[in-house]
Amino acid sequence: MTAIQLTPAQRKEHRSGAHHLDPVVMIGGEGLTAAVSKEVDLALKAHGLIKVRVFSDDRSAREAMLATLADELGAAPIQHIGKLLVLWRPIPPKEKAERDDDRMAGPRVVKLVSFSKSGNHRATIKKVKVFGNERVAAGGQIKRAKKRVTSIKKKQAD
Question: Fewer CB near the last or first residue (10 Å), C or N of the chain?
Answer without folding.
Answer: C
